[in-house]
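DATA CLASS: polypeptide
GOAL: derive structure tokens

***
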Amino acid sequence: MISAIILAAGQSKRMGRPKMLLSWGNLTVIEQIIAVFARAGIEDILVVTGGGYEQIQEIILKCSEIYPVRSVYNKDYASGEMVSSIQCGLRDLAKKAAKAAMIGLGDQPQVQEGSVQSVRDAFLQMESPLVVPSYHMRRGHPWLVARSLWGEFLEMSPGLTPRDFLDAHAKTIHYVNVESPSILADLDTPEDYRAART
């Protein structure tokens, strides 16, 4: 089984309001992402929450009636470190039988089902320890880390970033070229949100 860790613990300071709760069509941003991962065949979706926990948790509970989604709370979310949220998710997944974790962004509703499937399928075919989508030679999300590397990620010190981890394993990354720039896009500011919806 491949699990997904959706990072949704940020405080949305630049947006000025919780990004996960913004509308995206008939859904919220976080609902859209959960739906995309589920349609792409991910059987276990773990949302890491923090800022805006209560409202996001309410949505996740509603989604869990339809999709294989649950949540874990990152008590260190206020540090703003993405690594701490991924570590929080990996510690939870370590109790399960997942062979790999796909790391997705909670503020990336543009991500396409095909991109998620491409990363999943590449791992199932190649069993590479790291699978990263690439658009015009630029890394994006979601990327995948095999269970064999979780221990190393969990030992990362504060201040380090996922990029540091990927750079340290650059020679073992299997890149999947995708056709959509959506793997690079996220919603940080009101301007980003307006542009993404037009």
About this structure: The radius of gyration is 15 Å. The mean pLDDT is 88.
